[in-house]
Amino acid sequence: MKIAFNQTLKQSTLEKDLELCEKYGFDAIELRLDKLKDYLTRHSINELATYFKTHHLKPYSLNSLEFVTFCDDQSYSTIKEELAFLCEVGNKIDCDTIVVVPSFNVGDYTIEEIKKESIRVLNNLADQAEQANMRLAYEFVGHPDCCVNTFHQCTEILEELNRESVGMVLDFFHFHSLGSNIEDLRKIDAKKIFVIHIDDADHFPRGYLEQSRHRLFPGDGAINLDEILLALKEIGYDDTVSVELFREEYSEWDVEEFIKTAKEKTASVVGKHFNLTVC
Description:
Pfam families: AP_endonuc_2 (PF01261)
Shape: globular
Protein name: Sugar phosphate isomerase/epimerase
Keywords: Isomerase
GO molecular function, one term: isomerase activity
Organism: Ectobacillus funiculus
Oligomer: single chain
């Protein structure tokens, strides 16, 4: 199993994250759109591509196209422009996966209407992405305000969509926060999981958890990480997990100490069940 780092620290830059993730033995990094655009004000895409060719650290995903469902025309036009940009970057740095996030507070839509809209949007975006040999990872968000907020709901969308270039993001926090069913995870084809985010959570009631306030380092919280990791092992998943730690108080940490701690804690949890890549 490989371990990746998601760029969640407001106080850091892509240059610093690359340096420290390489130093502490991460295998991969998720490039966040805002950090990437900031980097490109000082460097070229070719410089980034050269970095990945000459270092152990590789790109895991491009993160993310957000709030893609139930958009007005102007918002959707911006999403399509960002998709084109991420496809260009992905092709140059050899990263073929883009995370896609459904919308929040969309109003009174039924599960079936949300499924229909998700399929419509994902098909449209995938038509564009496939032209650049890119694929999309749809991320359900375990919060009551998100229109796609459970593992089961997301898998139903993907099953009906039935498109090889579209899979899912499995985030442990989102899986836990609204009580997704571990038996559903044991039934999925592992090939449909394109990205995994590993994290932990404070011990609060379901539906109350917020990722900017309640995420924790793996092993520090209430999520049954062992159960989820064992289920992944059962279905044959053995690719990459990416530690994603949105939590406001983490913005006060020293960047190096945070990245070092994230690697150590993630490796400790994952290493109980999977062989880890040795740098």
